[in-house]
Design brief:
The chain is α+β, with helices and mostly antiparallel strands and about 110 residues long. The protein has one domain: HIT family, subunit A, CATH 3.30.428. It contains two helices and five strands; from the N terminus they run αβββαββ. Strands 1-2-3-5-4 form a five-stranded antiparallel β-sheet, covered by helices on one side. A hairpin with a 3-residue loop joins β1 and β2.
């Protein structure tokens, strides 16, 4: 999508601090971090949200999770722990309509909403 900020980052139209990239996934530092490590992991192919996952594209979820594991190891948060968060839809706080996960760590994160 031409107006999607994450697509523009993937296409290098907007600069970002890329921390990981392979043929299917890109990860870059969040511009408003909530922890010492706060990385966004996005598929290179535009998918609006988890609601657009199908049997044909569901493998991207595995690619994202495998990338999250590698990134957590590389950034030194793997052993102590991290969060991998996906917001799906307006009520959940999704502000960019491109599937993405927040990888957060590097400090004690405290209570979580269940």
């Amino acid at each position: 999508m031409s107006d999607c900020i994450f697509c523009k980052i993937i296409n290098r139209e907007i600069p970002s601090a890329v921390v990981y990239e392979d043929e299917k996934v890109m990860a870059f530092k969040d511009i408003n971090p909530v922890a010492p490590v706060h990385v966004l992991i996005v598929p290179k192919k535009h998918i609006g949200s988890v609601k657009e996952i199908t049997e044909e594209n569901a493998c991207i979820l595995a690619d994202i999770h495998l990338a999250a594991k590698k990134i957590a190891q590389e950034l030194g948060i793997y052993e102590k722990g991290f969060r991998l968060i996906n917001n799906c839809g307006e009520d959940a706080g999704q502000t960019v309509l491109h599937l993405h996960y927040h990888l957060i760590g590097g400090k004690t994160l405290g209570a979580k909403i269940l």
